[in-house]
């Protein structure tokens, strides 16, 4: 039963802790003192203004970086666009059967465009297209 005794001791410690906040609470003057400090908040307007100007300066720096970034992204986009157009041209050359197209539309319940696209991507191979769509 020695262990049991240890538990009781722990309980005692907890009780002591519980009484502490009440002791602090009775010193309610501390809270009152805090309230008296409140009016100082009005002076923080100047600090806020400083923060705003800092922010504005940062923004200017960022926007110049942004322009550089945008042009880089723009270049990449136009390259991707070109590649896409090439791919679309290649896909457009693929001959697909109307019945294959309708089969996919019915089987997968997808739009004509989606069905046609997957068919073209698989060089008109309806089986391949269906396999990919089911995965």
TrEMBL record:
Region Disordered, annotated ranges: 1-86
Record-annotated Nascent polypeptide-associated complex subunit alpha-like UBA domain positions: 94-134
Basic and acidic residues: bias regions: 35-61, 74-86
Signal peptide: none
Any coiled-coil regions, as ranges: none
One of the GO BP terms on file: negative regulation of apoptotic process
Name of the protein described by the UniProt record: HYPK protein
Protein species of origin: Nothocercus nigrocapillus
Gene giving rise to this polypeptide: Hypk
